[in-house]
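queue> pop job 88
queue> type: inverse folding (structure -> sequence)
queue> payload:
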């Protein structure tokens, strides 16, 4: 027990200088920039987040309706279906969870204990557990690890869909009898973890292996010496694709895209001189698609690349819809070396892109593209985006099409929330919930709206456990933390729920909570976030958050860390992970799984569902519910129905086309919308000028009345403005080749990244819980997809030398790869 005690004491001492006062540690910045970013990210002494004295949790009263029945009648059923599992004698300081398959109930839990101190490591042990009943019980299968230490930054790498494939990456340098050679070992399973086999690699892995999206036997691996490797038989044998690779991704079919240095070297400062290459035959032949690229990415049917044609000129974005055979320059404002682009979202129809404003102000402009990804129109000004933390609050509400949430930084230096229901055509403030009042920070009661906390608030260590949550099979449902006022407040946030895709909201729970959607929205569960204090109850609602009941799941001391449910929101099981203190010297991991199937025993029938018109705001109007050119009427569960949708539930809907209106159009290139109006007006600086752009090497003349249809809009007839593009014989330069040498200037930052909208629908979801006690602070809880490199904790972690070459993190002087 003594080594373990020493380890935790060391971590506490190392962490306190940074973490104990709730401040965030910032990367090193030039002197003229550091002050600006410190002001942007710190909540002390700034008005960006409204501040006031937080309300006391001990005095919190839930705003549950007095008409809601208590959960006493359910207690006996839930008691019989509450299952506790104790990970006896497990010294793991982190635990990583992964679901294998869809609806199989199989969970793998990997615990690791590793206490780094400079170049020394204390511990370095791993244990692996397997459950076949959604976490109610586990079997210790650690013997399959053969005493290997599994690298926590790699975690459990689960294959796509129903592949049953799992990869664990070992750190051979900590294995007994290590020869010192730079090679690696993976421990793989193709039967959902029932059996494992170890494979020695001809390289040392530098990043988690990347599965092909449809063929899980195909793997890409990136070695610590910057070589791209390929396996076509689930890691049994490997071949080299290319050396000196910077970034890479799978494309359609057997296509692989990657960037490399033209001189056959690896230089970490070589952004802007790289070549983008493609292979469609697994590395037998290569095609160079672009030169002088800074970074690239692939999403939907769009291939993106940022290009520096001349080191003294700004950067530009180029887009291809034919996998790089032809390119067109996106009609966007160029950015200097001190600005950045960011792809916020992309699908087969359109692209959302953020363009940073000059001056390191922490905001920029959101543009939306046409269906070719070439012509962009201004969608939202003063969009909040911090390049210190690399976070944006831009959120795709997957429970209803065309809906996105984000935050803006107003001229008064406050952060406010806005929402769009038509894919960026128009942005509006969120309505104030009827059951809420403006908080004490509001200076203008006439501007009392709901404001949502998302990734930026979490990055700044506000008490926000989770970002907004929605799911495609829970139609219209959104859960989010927020505050009500004229701007976001740093008062302790409450949980708000929308059942109509963001048009209206209601306060559901007082104070911050962890929450999860179960049974396709038929059940919501929540656990109060109260760091380092024992939790005894879980709250649940069967009517989309109107009424809540409480279940006392334990009478023992349980320090709650995270709430876990199977990806896809169809399960009826939820697990609470945490630990108990055996003594002041040690802790023990606990998992408490609650099965709600015995509570909702009746399968839903036809009479339990109602027809609901999405986007309905004015029932008397003929155009009511028309968004993106058509109406959608869903069959969704009535709030009063207490029944089970079941795993086979499929969202049912009917569609009907609408006549076109101005609302079906975005402002065309060179035009913008006046506030609170559908009318597009010409930008003053482009008035009376011929609008032209480069398309496939030829100059195109654009004749427009200022409108272009929103990509994906299906309306017919009605408002039909004239618009034409006329190709001339004048050649235009699309991409310049790099022939001159790279000038030695510092390329500061360009962030090009995609926030995947379908994260929760992927089969392999990994969650990480950390048990490092950092000066009494809250334990860290992180959520990640197929990689475990997002956990951010103590200084002690940063001293772990094994992380330096393996993690992909945001840097102030380099790109963040697109679509990793």
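queue> result:
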């Amino acid at each position: 027990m003594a080594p373990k005690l020493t380890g935790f004491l060391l971590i506490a001492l190392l962490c306190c200088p940074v973490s104990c006062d709730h401040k965030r540690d910032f990367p090193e910045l030039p002197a003229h920039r550091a002050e600006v970013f410190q002001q942007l990210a710190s909540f002390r002494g700034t008005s960006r987040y409204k501040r006031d004295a937080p309300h006391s949790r001990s005095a919190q009263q839930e705003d549950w309706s007095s008409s809601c029945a208590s959960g006493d009648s359910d207690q006996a059923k839930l008691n019989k279906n509450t299952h506790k599992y104790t990970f006896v004698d497990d010294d793991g300081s982190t635990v990583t969870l992964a679901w294998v398959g869809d609806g199989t109930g199989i969970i793998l839990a990997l615990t690791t204990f590793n206490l780094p101190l400079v170049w020394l490591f204390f511990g370095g042990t791993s244990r692996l557990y397997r459950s076949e009943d959604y976490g109610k019980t586990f079997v210790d299968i650690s013997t399959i690890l053969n005493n290997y230490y599994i690298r926590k930054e790699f975690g459990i790498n689960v294959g796509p869909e129903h592949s049953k494939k799992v990869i664990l990456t070992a750190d051979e340098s900590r294995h007994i009898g290590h020869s010192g050679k730079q090679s690696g070992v993976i421990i793989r399973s193709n039967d959902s973890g029932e059996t494992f086999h170890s494979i020695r690699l001809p390289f040392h892995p530098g990043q988690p292996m990347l599965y092909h999206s449809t063929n899980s036997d195909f793997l890409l691996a990136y070695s610590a010496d910057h070589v791209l490797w390929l396996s076509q038989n689930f890691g049994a044998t490997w071949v080299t694709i290319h050396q000196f690779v910077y970034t890479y991704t799978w494309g359609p079919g057997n296509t692989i895209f990657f960037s490399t240095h033209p001189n056959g070297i690896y230089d970490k400062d070589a952004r802007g001189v790289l070549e983008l290459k493609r292979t469609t035959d697994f590395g037998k032949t290569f095609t160079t698609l672009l030169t002088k690229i800074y970074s690239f990415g692939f999403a939907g049917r769009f291939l993106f690349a940022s290009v520096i044609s001349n080191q003294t000129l700004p950067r530009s974005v180029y887009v291809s819809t034919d996998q790089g055979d032809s390119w067109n320059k996106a009609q966007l404002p160029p950015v200097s070396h001190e600005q950045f682009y960011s792809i916020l979202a992309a699908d087969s129809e359109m692209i959302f892109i953020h363009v940073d404003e000059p001056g390191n102000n922490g905001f920029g402009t959101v543009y939306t593209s046409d269906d070719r990804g070439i012509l962009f129109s201004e969608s939202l000004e003063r969009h909040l985006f911090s390049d210190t933390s690399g976070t944006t609050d831009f959120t795709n509400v997957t429970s209803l099409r065309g809906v996105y949430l984000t935050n803006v930084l107003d001229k008064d230096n406050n952060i406010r929330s806005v929402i769009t229901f038509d894919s960026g055509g128009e942005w509006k403030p969120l309505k104030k919930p009827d059951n809420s009042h403006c908080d004490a920070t509001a200076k203008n009661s006439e501007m009392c709206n709901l404001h949502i906390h998302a990734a930026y608030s979490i990055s700044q260590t506000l008490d926000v456990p989770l970002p907004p949550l929605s799911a495609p099979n829970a139609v219209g449902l959104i859960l989010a933390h927020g505050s009500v006022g004229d701007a976001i407040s740093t008062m302790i946030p409450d949980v708000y729920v929308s059942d109509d895709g963001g048009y209206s909201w209601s306060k559901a729970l007082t104070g911050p909570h962890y929450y999860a959607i179960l049974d396709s929205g038929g059940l919501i569960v929540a656990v109060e976030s109260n760091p380092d204090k024992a939790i005894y109850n879980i709250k649940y609602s069967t009517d989309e958050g109107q009424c809540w009941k409480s279940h006392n799941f334990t009478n023992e001391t349980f320090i709650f860390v995270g709430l876990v449910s199977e990806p896809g929101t169809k399960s009826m099981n939820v697990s609470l992970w945490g630990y108990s203190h055996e003594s002041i010297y040690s802790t023990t991991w606990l998992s408490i799984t609650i099965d709600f199937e015995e509570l909702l025993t009746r399968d839903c029938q036809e009479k339990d569902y109602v027809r609901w018109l999405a986007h309905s705001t004015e029932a008397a109007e003929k155009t009511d519910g028309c968004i993106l050119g058509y109406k959608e009427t869903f069959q969704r569960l009535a709030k009063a129905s207490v029944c089970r949708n079941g795993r086979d539930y499929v969202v049912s809907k009917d569609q009907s086309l609408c006549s076109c209106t101005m609302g079906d159009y975005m402002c065309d290139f060179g035009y913008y919308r006046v506030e609170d109006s559908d009318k597009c007006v010409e930008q003053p600086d482009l008035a009376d000028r011929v609008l032209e752009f480069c398309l496939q090497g030829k100059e195109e003349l654009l004749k427009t009345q200022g409108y272009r249809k929103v990509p994906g809009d299906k309306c017919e007839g009605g408002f039909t403005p004239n618009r034409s593009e006329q190709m001339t014989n004048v050649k235009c330069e699309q991409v310049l080749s790099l022939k001159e040498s790279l000038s030695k200037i510092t390329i500061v930052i360009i962030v090009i990244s995609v926030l995947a909208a379908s994260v929760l629908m992927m089969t392999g979801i990994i969650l990480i819980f950390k048990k490092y006690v950092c000066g009494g602070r809250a334990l860290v809880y992180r959520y990640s997809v197929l990689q475990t490199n997002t956990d951010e904790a103590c200084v002690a972690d940063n001293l772990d030398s094994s992380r330096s070459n393996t993690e992909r993190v945001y840097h102030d002087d380099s790109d963040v790869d697109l679509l990793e």
